[in-house]
Structures are given as structure tokens and as C-alpha cells.
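S1.2 Input.
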Amino acid sequence: MLLQRLKEYAGTRMTLPPENYDSLPVRYIFEIDLQGRPLKPAPSCTADKANKATQRGERRLTPYVPRTGDFAFVLADHAEYVFGIPRPKTPKRGEEPEPPGDVSNRKRLFRERLERCFAATGAPEVEAVRLFLEHHAPTAEQLGPDFDPAATITFRVHTSTGAVIPTDLPAVQAFWAAENDPETKGAEVLQCVVCGETRPALQRMQGKIKGLTAVGGQGAGTAIISADKDAFESYGLENSYIAPTCRDCARGFTAALNDLLAGERSRRLIGGAMFVYWTRQPVSFDLWEMLSQPAPEQVSALLETVRAGRSLALDTTDTTAFYAAALTATGGRVVVRDWIDTTLGEVKEHLGRWFLRQQVTGAWGEPPEAIPLWKLAAATISKKRKNEQPPAALTTALLRCAIAGTHLHAGLLAQ
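S1.3 Output.
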């Protein structure tokens, strides 16, 4: 159900990026004219070392699929593919590791992809890039010692009517989608676990989940469906065929989860787990504010409802569907530790009971105060181990108790 709800979120709450595009740091932009002539002696560099968000370059929607072996992107790639200039042997933190390859072969693959793109689109901007690479491609010496061959490179073509980055052209986006269509690659036709339709299934996910580095995820992204060892396979199905997914559904749930993980009000890190939560329709209720900084007046309102025996779940204004998932990552794969599918009214009712159960009158008769969830989790860590994070299983159990009304297991009592 998690993947279905994420796909639903993408369809109703998001404007999806072009197919097989991802938001990636693009450091170098070569400025050229329609004849492929460089307009500047050096590329424009978008990196700002003082800004963490752009220290590897400004983020742009760029053609991308996870690589297996030598595989060229179109019109945007690193220097081994674009110019045949070798990269450092060890990738920097956050960069996607690639097996060593023949640099001249990677350069050839990039040029061949570019030729096919021009043949399919007829775009003069694409032809301008081809002419630049054929007649004006710089050498490593011309680019200088400060040039980073591991950074992503793209192009901006200046015309009489303005300037355009070719990867932004709809024709180029359609070409890239067609180049990565599983149907054209002999994919197996299986029933999609998300939409239920029988369609060509992805052998490997074409997008990765970002934002899970704090819970074990890789900087370059983490796969939500993957099997790279015999132990993970079943019924003779390998790779992502273990949970067959059509590309439309995979595009939707990948974009949705990345959007939730990037949002300030839709994800929180507690201990060793990352929580994402959302509602089917936008609402003003902020779950995390209630759990991390519970306001006395809000808590009092919930307690009064519980004490009066009124069910918020029956309130027609609170029938909006509510979803939450607890995530960690290991070995390049996402681990879904918990999944909650309920309504906003039930969440509020369970929160009222959560705050009622934890009430403790102060030593001098002071009225009870609501305890933030993070403080309860931290209470299980010894002062001698104060730098440790609470385990993911603990924080997941606390969250489920708070919003789904389950009981905490007895093993937590000693902690």
C-alpha cells in the first residue's frame, strides 16, 4: 500500500519532473553559439563553496538513470563522457561510484547518444553542442588545474532570441524518455504491483531515493526496490523484478518519496529512523509540532475530547486519510520499518490518549506537562552514552503508539 499511496500523492499533490530526469548539481555550463563556437574561454562555474546547497554546483533537472557499466547521459555528464578527460580514481563524498571504464569508450558513447538525439529531434541547439565537441572541445590542459572532471557539465546555446540549455527542450526530454523505455529494451511483461496492469516492468529502478544518508543511505541515492544477491530473489525473479513495477508507477512513487523527504513539514529524523508523513489532501494540522513541541492549549483540547468520550474519528472534518512511514537504509536499499494508514481524526484521538497516558503531576503538585516524543526516546539512553542515538525500533514503536494507539511492548520498560 505504501507505493500505491506515494503514486497517488505524486498524481494529486505534485507536478512531476520530466521522465528520467533528476535534480542534480551541475557545476559547469559551456556557453556556445548556434555554430558551436565558444563564447567564453572557460565554462561558467555555478559552484559556491560557501553554500552547502551549491558547493558542487547549482541543482538542475538533468537526464539521469542509475548507471550499470559504461552508459552515457544526453547533453549533461562528467568529463570522462563529455571530453574523454579521466576523473580521480576515488569519487568524492556524495558522488555516484562507477566501475573503472575505458575513457575513450565513454567519450564515444556520449557522442553517439548526442548523434541519435539530433537525428530524433532535429534541434539546432543539439547540433550546436555536436559542432562544439567536434571542433572546439577543450583539453585538460586548457581547462586548467582547478577544473573538476568529476563534476557534471552541460551547455547553454545562445541564439538571436535568447539562450537555452538543450536538456530543457521538450523534444530532448521526449528523446531521453524513449531511450530508456523498458519496452524497447526487451523488458519482461509482468503485473505491476502498484497499478495492477500487465506492462513491461523495470529491471532496475530508474530513479533513486535521496535524503536518507542520516539513516544509512548512500549519498548518490538509495534503491527502494532492488535484489542484487540470491538471498533477496524469489520465484526466479531477479533485480527489481522481485516487485514488478511499470515505469509510470516507479516514476510517481520515487518522485513522491523524494518530495516528502525534501519537505520541512513532511519528514523528521528521530534517533535512527527517518519518518515521512502526509495527508491525502492538504490540511493545516501539523503532526510534528504536536509531538515535538506540544502546545498546552492544543493538548488540553485533545484531552477534553478524550475525557468527554467524543470520537474525533467520527468528525466529518477529520476523515482525511493520513499516512506515515518509518524508513532506514542499508546496503544501498531502503528499509521500510513501519507503515501507518489511518485518518486524521483517528490520529488526533490517539494523540489525546497518548498525552493522557503520560501525565505525571510535578513533585510540588505542578500540573502535568506534555512530554515531547524525542525526550521520551532520549530517556532510554544512559548518561554515560549520551552521544548515542535511540535505536530505530524504539522510536518507531513510540511513534506508532502516539498516532496509531498501539501499546508499547514490555521490553521497553527497563529502558
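S1.4 Remarks. The radius of gyration is 26 Å.
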